[in-house]
Amino acid sequence: MAIDRVAIITGGANGIGKACARRLSEDGCHVVIADVDAQAGQELADELGAEKNKALFVQCDVSDRLAVNNLLAETRSAFDRLDILINNAGIVAGGDILTLSEADFDRVMGVNLKGAFLVAREAAQQMVDQIEAEEARSEDVRRRYAIINMSSVNGVMAIQDQLAYCATKGAINQMTKSMALALAKYGIRVNAIGPGSINTDVLKSVNDDEEAMNKIMSRTPLQRIGDPDEIASIASFLASKDASYITGTTLYADGGRLALNYTVRSD
Ligand code: NAD
Known about the structure:
- About 45% of the residues lie in helices and about 15% in strands.
- The chain has about 270 residues and is of the alpha/beta class.
């Protein structure tokens, strides 16, 4: 009998991560929801079958190495393996080069970049250990293993007063490539997703602000905000054997924003 795949989703309690956890659960994976938000994380794990050992919530601040070590230990103890990582936890802090505080710079770097590194490092080691111990055939590795880092259009386009966030997402794109090169010999694929404006808590303030929404629409050719499910479906694809020859790339889902120079035409 085929062994179910096991996926860790960081920042999996809310927003895009929550949609990814639901989608991978529908795909038949056991899901480990890793988040600082214990209430939402446990509720989602319960919804996705914590009682039947289909889902697990682990409280984890990804910027804390010991918490990340514990996340992997809890995953092994519950499911004995790891096949997929959705490295998704992320935060923002306003500030440009003249105003951003050192504390906010460190906080955003700590979660978005160092946190992504710490989780990816532990996850990759676990995957390599499994592949070597199981003497896995390359076609099985292709079917099972994937790491997906959550980037952003801000990995390549900048917002003036989101210096730290933009810097981390540019770095995530490069880390994705470097990881893909190092893990290629094992057959583990590493890719990133670059969302545009997606309807999560991050956009809550904008939803009720007509002027801010008009600004977003002026740079979104598809003329709507994206849904978290439209990012989760990409995570599902990148984690599937249908993506077996894709590694080291960032796939953008941005309603056309990166294709646009100037603003959307009104006619
Ligand atoms: P969100 O705020 O709705 O969810 C983020 C989740 O991460 C929350 O559950 C939060 O508790 C968790 N989290 C925060 N700090 C954490 C930490 N230190 N350790 C573990 N978990 C932590 O945000 P979202 O919009 O769903 O964003 C998810 C990812 O998608 C982020 O990496 C973000 O940069 C990226 N993204 C979002 C958008 C968007 O428009 N929403 C666009 C581009 C990229």
